[in-house]
Amino acid sequence: MTRAKIVKMTEEHLDMEALREAGVLLRNGGLAAFPTETVYGLGGNALDPEASRKIYQAKGRPSDNPLIVHIADMEHLAPIVREIPASALALAKACWPGPLTMIFWKSPLVPYETTGGLDSVAVRMPESRIARELIRQAGGYVAAPSANTSGRPSPTLAEHVVEDLGERIDMIIDGGMVKIGLESTIVDFTEEVPVILRPGYLNRQMLEEILGTVKVDPGIREENAKVRPKAPGMRYRHYAPRAELTIVEGPEEKVTETIREMAKEKLAEGRRVGILCCRETAGQYREGRVFPVGSRLGEDSIARHLYEALRQFDQENMDVIYSEAFDTPRMGQAIMNRLLKAAGHKVLEVQ
Ligand code: AMP
Ligand code: MG
Predict the structure, then answer these.
(1) CA distance linking residue 46 with residue 1, whole number of Å
(2) Atom 13 (ligand 1): residue with closest C-alpha?
C-alpha cells in the first residue's frame, strides 16, 4: 500500500468527484500528481510558498530550480506576469493548450519560492483535459514539475510516480500513458528575441513559422557542454538511468555491429547489458537485453517510450546501456537532448 490515494480516469471520462477532491487538497496546501500530455506533473498551489517548498522537498529538487506554473484559461495569465509581449500572445494563440512553456517577468502575485528566486516565471497551459480540470478545481494556478525524484527519468506512467513519490505525496491521478513523453518546449520572452531554453515536441522550425526569428540558448547545445544553460534545470545531470549509458552514432550497419561487439565484451565480464534501439534494427541484436523504443518511421513512439525504457533498465539492474542515436526529423533535437543528458554526453562516433 502506498500512502498516496490513487484514482484512475481517462480524458474521455473525467472523474469529477475525484478532481474536486484533488482541487480541495491543492487549495489546502497538499500535493497531487496528475497526467499531462508531456509527462506526469507533481502539482501544488503555485501561489502558496509553503506548497512550493513541499514540492522541492518531495522531489529532492534543488530549490534554485524554478517550477512551471500551469494555468487552464487565458485570463489567468495576465495576473501573474508583468506584461505579455505581442509575440508571446501570438504563440499562445497558436500553441496553447499544448506542450509549450513561456517565460515572462513575474508579477508580485507569484512567490519567489515558486520561481526559485528568479524575477521571471514559467507558464504553461497543458492540453490534457484531466490537467486543465484539476487546475480549475485548484483555483487556477498549479506549480508542477515532473513527478519524479530529482535526477531520475521523468514519469510517463502513473506507476513511475508511485515508484518515486508514492510515499511522499497525498494523491496520484492515473490517466494511463502520456501522449508525448518528453517535457515541454520552453521559450523565453524576457529578451528582445525569443530564446528556446529547452527543446520539446514543438521544434525551432515550428516556432519560427509563428515568431519569425527564434534563438536557441547556446547552453543546451551538446558541443557547448561547458556553457551555462539559462534554464536552471538544464544544468543538472538529469533524466539519468543508474547504468552507464553510451550513445553510438554513425551508419546503421556500423552502429549495430559496434554495439554487438561491446555488448559481447561486457557480457563476458559478467556485466548486465541493455540495448536501446529502434524497431527496425532490434532483430539484429543477439545478446543483452534489447529494448526497441519505437519506430524511426513513427518518431512519436520513440519520444513516448524513451523514459520508460530507461526506467525499465534501472529496474532490471543493468550495468551498462548502449543506445542508437535517434536523430529523427521532427523531434530528434528534443530526443537527443534528453538522451545526451542521460548519457552525460558520452557518444561514440563510428564510421
Ligand atoms: P520540469 O518542471 O521538471 O520540467 O522543469 C522545469 C524547467 O523549467 C526547468 O528546467 C527549469 O529550470 C525551467 N524554468 C522554470 N522557470 C524558469 C524561469 N523563470 N527561467 C528559466 N527557466 C525556468
Ligand atoms: Mg523535471
Answers:
(1) 29
(2) 231
